[in-house]
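Write out the 3D structure for:
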Amino acid sequence: MPKNSPESMQHHLRQRLNKHTADRWPQLTRVEVRYRGGFAYLDGVLPGGEVLPLCRLRFGGVLHTWAFAIYIASRDSCQDNTLPSGLPVGSPEEALDCACGLYLNDLTAWLTPPSTT
């Protein structure tokens, strides 16, 4: 079974995701992150306290790149998937945006901003 990410990395990931949630997803009060066997499970918490399972990230040894699996409500489990970039790995914020775009019905989360170069 894969190892959990280091404690300091877990703390940093929680901070990053909750900052991103506050900036991008006002529908959520926060994101809860649970760790188990090399995976980080992300749940969104709605204002009334309802918990919304979102996705799973797989730690690959690098803080900024995690493998992505979307939560499938009908199966009550996660399934490996690709991000809107077409890649199966990306930043935790990309994964959160992808899952929130689906579960909070905001398709703009999947759009890539135009390049400024």
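The chain has a mean pLDDT of 90.
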